[in-house]
């Protein structure tokens, strides 16, 4: 399965949107398939957006097409440059090595006017944003041409300036079962509308005093066709256009025309826009545009168990400091997943595994976790680390002696390589791997019992050393060095194998153990997600790690043997000390029940 998302040659998934694209390709309806991913820069991208990115870039990639990254930034109030930068980084990370050759960026400084007049804009492919001269598309770049389109619509008698207040507009609109009423301003002359619209743009009127509306049908059963708002007055600076504009287009007007301006062929959005499709088509058709028109298709949003997929709610988690930021490794944001150590390929694989449908549902988070484990199992370097160390002395190994043991780096590799780990007189084992009073069928270490140290030898517990308070200080064991691989006793069998690190060669590291952020599958089903936060979603421990881990870098997949998958956190922790995030445990612990109180 992983191949399907990572290899260029592997077959693509099938779904109803891909079927439509395939028909359009067969009928040669477009010179090139062009999709877009159009986030509003009012928050970080989350796992739901990842689904949309994989769909849009996947289609572009499968059809030798292009997918434009477009900031849907027509609403000046909520948007921010921090979000723009984060979105670019997250999209590039998610598609790197997979669909980056399909990424449509515009040449830096390309003027919207040129984009309108040159007929078929075809922008740079695969160019990175930044100093080499390309940047993502911004819907706000089109404010000029959008204004011209609005003027054209007025000239055709298909839009008018309306003086109803926002509240009155709402009242006149009616309800799904009750037709609306015509605005008294609906019959204004084209000349008067043109004059008023120009004056709206010139800043003559305060916020809310007037709006531009499409003239469609106030009795339409589709409420979106009841003379929808196209422009409103907002004397607000915009993060991209500054104070140049005081009128801003609404989503429905800006979106279809942005799609048209960029030469988009398939405009894919989520199901709540089904009813907007008639307006999308009406606007494009009313303008009598010369080039092939884009079409809108809708699919079901991703809803994921134990997870919020709404920027607004995620923002609340950030603002109320439930998490440390948008990229907190517990956040379902792309940045959070990346920081936690989830590979981009796993998110892409997940997006492919859930498929694309027309029906809303709740996806089991176990599927995402499974996908992450599968990918990491394939790629992660195996390393030894002890999260909750207890000291163990191998009394028959002299102090200062280092016994080299071969440890496998990744048994999943075609030709696995090894490294050397040093067994010394003093080692650490996991506190959980020793039980003074073992429960039945306990195969780890117990007084008088045997266990194999992974990659090394069998040891026997001779003595438990305690302090005055009765706490275990050290375990004293003897090592059967002949039971090492290749030794005369190598065939000796014991029931348990545990991991360990040398006490003298290992280094200390901070390890952050994450669990789910919410303790119910649908955190916001009752509208009170803040009351369902899992109080045990983060535990920080000081671990001992084998020396090879000192070279670990952020983004590198690691398995701490018997414990789970981990990744270096570039951001958190104490200077001079490595910090690791647990990406995911080896087995799903959650199904055993909620975390202890
Ligand atoms: P939110 O409610 O989190 O703000 P949004 O839909 O308003 O989400 P946008 O920035 O407008 O966020 O979305 C960009 C694109 O991502 C849109 O095409 C949208 O359809 C898609 N998208 C957003 N959320 C999901 C989701 N949960 N599943 C699939 N696609 C999504
Ligand atoms: Mg939105």
Description:
- With 597 residues, this protein is of the alpha/beta class.
- Among the domains are: 107 residues, Alpha-Beta Complex (Glutamyl-tRNA Synthetase, domain 3), CATH 3.90.800; 166 residues, Ribosomal Protein L25, Chain P, CATH 2.40.240; 122 residues, Ribosomal Protein L25, Chain P (Beta Barrel), CATH 2.40.240.10.
- Helices cover 25% and strands 22% of the residues.
- It has 14 helices and 28 strands.
- The strands form 7 sheets. Strands 13-26-27-28-24-25-14 form a 7-stranded mixed sheet.
- α4 links the parallel β2 and β3.
- α3 crosses α13 and α9 packs across α10.
- The two termini are 39 Å apart.
- Adenosine-5'-triphosphate (ATP) binds next to α3 and β11.
- The site of adenosine-5'-triphosphate (ATP) has 15 residues, from α3 and β11.
Helices and strands in order:
Blueprint: H1 2-6, H2 16-26, E1 34-37, H3 47-62, E2 66-71, H4 81-95, E3 103-104, E4 106-107, H5 112-117, E5 134-135, E6 137-138, H6 143-155, E7 159-162, H7 166-173, H8 190-202, E8 211-214, E9 229-233, E10 247-249, H9 251-261, E11 266-270, H10 277-286, E12 295-299, H11 311-319, H12 334-340, H13 344-354, H14 365-379, E13 381-383, E14 385-386, E15 389-394, E16 403-408, E17 418-423, E18 426-430, E19 450-453, E20 458-466, E21 472-480, E22 497-498, E23 500-502, E24 507-514, E25 538-545, E26 558-560, E27 564-568, E28 579-585
Parallel strand pairs: 1-2, 2-3, 2-6, 11-12, 13-26, 15-21, 19-22, 24-28
Antiparallel strand pairs: 4-5, 7-8, 8-9, 9-10, 14-25, 15-18, 16-17, 18-23, 19-20, 20-21, 24-25, 26-27, 27-28
Bound molecules: adenosine-5'-triphosphate (ATP) and magnesium ion.
Adenosine-5'-triphosphate (ATP) is lined by residues 38-40, 48-49, 51-52, 72, 269-270, 301-302, 309-311.
């Amino acid at each position: 399965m992983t191949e399907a998302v990572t290899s260029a040659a592997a077959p693509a998934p099938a779904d109803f949107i891909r079927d439509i694209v395939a028909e359009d390709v067969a009928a040669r309806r477009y010179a090139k398939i062009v999709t877009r991913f159009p986030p509003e820069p009012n928050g970080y991208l989350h796992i739901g957006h990842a689904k949309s990115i994989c769909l849009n870039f996947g289609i572009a990639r499968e059809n030798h097409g292009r997918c434009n990254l477009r900031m849907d930034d027509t609403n000046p109030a909520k948007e921010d440059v921090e979000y723009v930068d984060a979105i670019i980084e997250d999209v590039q990370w998610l598609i790197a090595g997979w669909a980056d050759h399909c990424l449509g960026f515009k040449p830096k400084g390309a003027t919207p006017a040129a984009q309108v007049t040159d007929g078929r804009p075809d922008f740079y492919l695969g160019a990175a944003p930044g100093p080499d001269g390309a940047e993502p598309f911004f819907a706000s770049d089109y404010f000029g041409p959008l204004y011209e389109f609005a003027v054209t619509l007025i000239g055709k008698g298909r839009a008018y300036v309306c003086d109803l207040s926002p509240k009155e507009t709402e009242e006149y609109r009616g309800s799904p079962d009750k037709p609306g009423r015509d605005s008294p301003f609906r019959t204004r002359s084209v000349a008067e509308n043109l004059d008023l619209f120009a004056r709206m743009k010139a800043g003559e009127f305060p916020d809310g005093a007037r709006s531009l509306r499409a003239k469609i049908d106030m009795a339409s059963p589709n409420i979106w066709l009841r003379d929808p708002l196209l422009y409103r007055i907002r004397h607000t600076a915009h993060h991209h256009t500054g104070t140049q504009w005081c009128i801003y287009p609404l989503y429905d007007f800006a979106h279809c025309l942005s799609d048209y301006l960029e030469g988009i062929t398939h405009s894919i959005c989520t199901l709540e826009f089904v009813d907007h499709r008639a307006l999308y088509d009406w606007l494009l058709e009313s303008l009598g545009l010369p080039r092939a028109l884009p079409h809108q298709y809708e699919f079901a949003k991703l809803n994921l168990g134990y997870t919020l997929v709404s920027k607004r709610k995620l923002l609340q988690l950030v603002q109320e400091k439930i998490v440390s930021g948008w990229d907190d490794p517990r956040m379902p944001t792309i940045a959070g997943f990346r920081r936690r150590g989830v590979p981009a390929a796993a998110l892409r694989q997940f997006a492919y595994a859930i498929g694309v449908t027309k029906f809303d549902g709740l996806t089991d988070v176990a599927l995402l976790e499974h996908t992450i484990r599968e990918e990491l199992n394939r790629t992660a370097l195996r390393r030894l680390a002890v999260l909750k160390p207890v000291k163990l002395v191998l009394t028959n190994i002299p102090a200062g002696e280092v016994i080299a043991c071969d440890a496998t780096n990744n048994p999943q590799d075609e030709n696995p390589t090894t490294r050397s780990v040093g067994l010394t007189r003093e080692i650490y084992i996991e506190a959980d791997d020793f039980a003074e009073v073992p429960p039945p069928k306990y195969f780890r270490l117990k007084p008088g019992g045997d266990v194999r140290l992974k990659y090394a030898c069998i040891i026997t517990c001779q003595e438990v050393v305690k302090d005055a308070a009765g706490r275990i200080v050290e375990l004293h064991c003897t090592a059967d060095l002949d039971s090492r691989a290749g030794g005369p006793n190598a065939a000796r069998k014991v029931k348990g194998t545990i991991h360990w690190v040398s006490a003298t060669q290992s280094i200390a590291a901070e390890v952050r153990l994450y669990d789910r952020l919410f303790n119910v599958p649908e955190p916001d089903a009752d509208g009170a997600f803040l009351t369902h936060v899992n109080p045990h979603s983060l535990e920080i421990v000081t671990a001992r790690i084998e020396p090879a881990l000192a070279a670990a870098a952020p983004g590198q997949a690691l398995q701490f043997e018997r414990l789970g998958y981990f990744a270096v956190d570039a951001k958190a922790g104490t200077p001079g000390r490595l910090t690791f995030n647990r990406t995911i445990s080896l087995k799903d612990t959650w199904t055993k029940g909620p975390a202890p109180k």
